[in-house]
Amino acid sequence: MKASGWLARIAVFGVALAVAGCGEVDRPALPRLTPAEEQAAKGAVFAYRTDAELAVVRGTETVRAPGSFGYSSGPVSFTRDGQYAFAVETSSKTLVALGVRDRSVTRIPCDCTDAVALRGSVIGWWREPGQIMSMDLAGTEPAGPEREIVLPDSPSPLTGGTWDGAKLVAATDEFVLLARVESRGLWWEKSHLYAIGADAILPLGRVPGIDAGLSAAAGPDGHTFVLAGATARSATCGSGNVATIDAATNGVLALPTLPGECSAAYSPRWSTDGSITIATRKWADLAGAPSTVDRLQSAAQGWAPVREYPVVDMLPRAQESMIEVVAGEPTDARGTPHGVLVVHKGDAREEVAQQVVSLGAPTTATR
Predict the structure, then answer these.
(1) What letters, b where the CB count within 10 A reaches 16 and e where it falls short, cover 245-284?
(2) Rounded CA gap, 324 and 332, in Å?
């Protein structure tokens, strides 16, 4: 299939540019599956992450890769072809990828905090001062630059801070969405957005209420994204907010305000049926106050819980299976929520793992 949108541009750029490595890639020899293992691996595919491991579940088989993912509450991502799950270690800034079929484990020293799926088995991330880096997890070449980027001025003026890095937060065939952070240090930050297309870099600026901890997910149309983040009122309290943005027009639609004196919104999902869900935390602005977590879905009158009980994360229903992380006890306001991974299939309920932080699933069928 012919490449379209911004991907057509970087495909040409990648051919002309000499590949420059990004650290030594740790890629062990690939194991071979026996016929019995192939049979056991048939079934729904999803991934989960704890503080200390990334795991892929395929049918009755679970494959694990150790990692130091620390405080991150971000979701597990899959490549566009569904063949690899990946997440970034927060402390070492190393990308960890796990093969769905071949069970390969790849560790890439990316010096990044976030990475996105670009096309096929190719993932990408931002490298200062201005490069989109990429690596094909199914190939043999090391990571290298795909495209040199000079970010234009933001239409939203700086408000007393200085630039403190950038990250890729979502990608489609048409656009890569980048967040550039303005910071004064400590808890204060503002996020300035850019949509990187085939022929232009569109400076979108700041979205009201989406300042700190910005995360994003692509919508079904390829040019609209859902954003989640927070506006801080102090070092201990802020308000979580959610909005959608059309990268082609810079049209912003603010979604209803989240409940709670202090709140945070993160890990948005925009399903193919048009529904938007987000993970939320809320707490009182008191020393030692606990934080409660739940996943909410956009509704006509605001936000509604996705289940009758609090959940940390939940995947869109896949055929007869429902996969969720049931919330545990309330945590400290700054703590990362964890829960029990539960798979429902018909009337059966199976607890698969403990201390799970987040989930992910491929957007295409994986064979």
Answers:
(1) bbbeeeebeebeebebebbbbbbbbbeeeeebbbbbbbbe
(2) 22
Using the 8-state DSSP alphabet, how is residue 6 labeled?
H
What does the radius of gyration of the chain's CA atoms come to, in whole angstroms?
20
DSSP 276-318: EEEEEEEE-SSTT-EEEEEEEEEETTEEEESSSS-EEEEPPPB
Q: Are 239 and 262 in contact (CB under 8 A)?
A: yes
How far does the chain reach from its first CA to its final CA, in angstroms?
A: 20
Contact 294, 303 (CB under 8 A): no
Residue 193 burial class via C-beta count within 10 angstroms: exposed 0-12, middle 13-18, buried 19 and up: buried
Helices (H), the chain: 5-16, 35-40
Q: Following CA atoms 140, 141, 146, 148 in sequence, which dihedral angle do they give, to the nearest 10 degrees?
A: 160
pTM to 2 decimal places: 0.88
pLDDT tens digits for range 184-225: 877 778 999 999 998 899 999 999 999 999 999 999 999 999
Give the residues of the chain that fall short of pLDDT 50.
Answer: 1-3, 11-21, 30, 35-36, 39-40
Instruction: Give phi and psi for 11, each to the nearest 5.
Output: -65, -45
Closest CA to 165 of 149, 154, 181: 181
Dist CA 218 CA 246 (whole Å): 10
Long-range own/partner contacts, residues 133-137 (CB < 8 A, 24 or more apart): 133/22, 134/10, 134/14, 135/22, 135/25, 135/108, 137/79, 137/83, 137/84, 137/86, 137/97, 137/99, 137/106
Helix spans in 117-220 (H) = none
Amino acid at 182: E
**Cα 174 from Cα 118, distance rounded (Å):** 10
CA 307 to chain centre: 22
